[in-house]
Amino acid sequence: MGLARELSSSDFDSVVLQSTVPVLVDFWAPWCGPCRMVAPAVEQLAGEFQGKALVCKVNVDDCQDIAMRYRITSIPTLMVFKGGQVVDQFIGARSKEDLKRALENAIAA
Predict the structure, then answer these.
(1) Model pTM score
(2) Which of 23, 35, 42, 46 is catalytic?
(3) Which of 7, 24, 32, 46 is catalytic?
(4) Annotated catalytic, 32?
(5) pLDDT digits over 52-108, tens only?
(6) End-to-end alpha carbon distance in the chain
(7) Would you call 33 helix, strand, or coil by DSSP?
(8) Which residue, 21, 54, 62, 88, shows the most beta carbons closer than 10 Å to its own?
């Protein structure tokens, strides 16, 4: 198991929406090529931001209710939450630097 926390429908709200630190959520699926491309960067960020932010993954096949709630129509979709609200969003594979900058901005805000 990697450093990024796998979330389920039952723990998403308590982990993400009630977090006291920013949360990067990677909405993905195992069959998605671009999702597999971005996965190493997500895992690296989970390690780099330990104690400052959370990095989580939501399998959209297993958590269709969450995917519908956030209108996930393309994957990977990566969202940064702060105070229970989406403060940044990326659709499609992005560089580690883009994701890192978004997390740093959420921490600083």
Answers:
(1) 0.95
(2) 35
(3) 32
(4) yes
(5) 999 999 999 999 999 999 999 999 999 999 999 999 999 999 999 999 999 999 999
(6) 31
(7) helix
(8) 54
